[in-house]
Amino acid sequence: MNVGAIEERVAAALHWSTTEAPPNASASRVSHRHYATGPTPVNLKEYEAFAKNNMPRNAWDYYASGALDMITLRENRAAWGRLRFRPRILRDVSSIDTATTVLGQKVSMPICIAPTAMQQMAHPDGERATARAARKKGALMTLSSWSTLSLEEVAEEAPDSFRWFQLYVYKDRDVTLDLVRRAERNGYKALAVTVDTPVLGRREADVRNRFSLPSHLTMGNFAGVGGAHSSGTKSSGAEGSGLASYCASLIDRTLTWEDLRWLRANTSLKIVVKGVSTAEDASVAVREGVDAIWISNHGARQLDTTPATCEMIPEIIAAVGGRCEVYVDGGITRGADALKAVALGCRAVFIGRPVLWGLAHSGSDGVEHVLDLLKAELEMAMMLCGAVTVKDIKREMVTHNTNTATRMAAVRRATLAGAKSKTHGREGAVPRSEQRADREA
Length: 441
Hints:
Blueprint: H1 3-15, H2 27-31, H3 44-54, H4 57-64, H5 71-81, E1 83-85, E2 100-102, E3 105-107, E4 111-113, H6 126-137, E5 141-143, H7 151-157, E6 163-167, H8 173-185, E7 190-194, H9 204-209, H10 228-231, H11 242-250, H12 257-265, E8 270-276, H13 279-287, E9 292-295, H14 309-320, E10 325-329, H15 335-344, E11 348-351, H16 353-385, E12 398-400, H17 401-421, H18 432-440
Parallel strand pairs: 4-11, 5-6, 6-7, 7-8, 8-9, 9-10, 10-11
Antiparallel strand pairs: 1-12, 2-3
């Protein structure tokens, strides 16, 4: 994409009116939608602020909160800001191409949609709206096992789109296999197997609200199963949260690598292990023959005070050694964050909450706009770093701010040492205050 087109994309991303349908929206699409009023959000933080001010408390707290003191939740975001660019200059960046591949399938950019549960709490169209937006923007969408619409309904909405299915392994293996078979029949290309949830992390906002799924919604993938699988989130139960009670009663806590082998033997779909956070587990995953590793701390909703996901990338990339693709999620709020992740060795990043904020604002069109904003920011960052294509993004383009500070301190020490060697006696000597500042640096 050339510079003029990028400027037009940025302008369009920032300026479509939210009091009426966005450009190119058909009358049939507009007829069953309502649009938010007021200024158009110009970044993901503004979408988040809108969602916070307009969502029911039960839904907002469920989507937005993390585990316990939410230290990791804050760190997930802050850590991306501690990475610094090292831009290259005097390169022809008149045409930028953000396209890449994920497990061999072409996507428009290395920014994909992570699974988020119960999307109809954010907008009546829920997962259908997300699927429409992903198809239109050429993005990979991962559907949650705990979606409020069935995987068949989502596939019907966007039959030609690139989709994965996120899978929890249930105590009842027949229920698990049924989900796998349905995903196979409906064109999902991979299973993102969540492995970090033997028990649901304690999310105090949900306990305080006694979270439960609104009465008019259901767990779409389990309507035909009945019992606790379809209605287990309707009551807060003994855990104080409907989802925590659901997870405690149905999700298999005995899950091991042996179960991943069982899954591999029972499907031809690609297997992506979601929830890896250490080099040790990444090494085991590669030995077990997984197709990809997804670095994740579950949106900081499981074990608090784990590292931020972007800080896990270097050790996991080193352990994998190029033997499979690696992805990361958590705290991504700018397109430039995707550039940083790719520079560190990831194939792509996944966003979860920003999709929900776009949904809450204006359904499918809000999700499209969120993706447009991220792509425009990624294009601009690539241009300013001197990367024309995703393949041009190199490791040396990103460093940690502590490395920058160390390098600057070393340069300062060398400069001071050179100044000292050229002086004799006290005349021209480096002042004590500067020497003390140097030691402190």
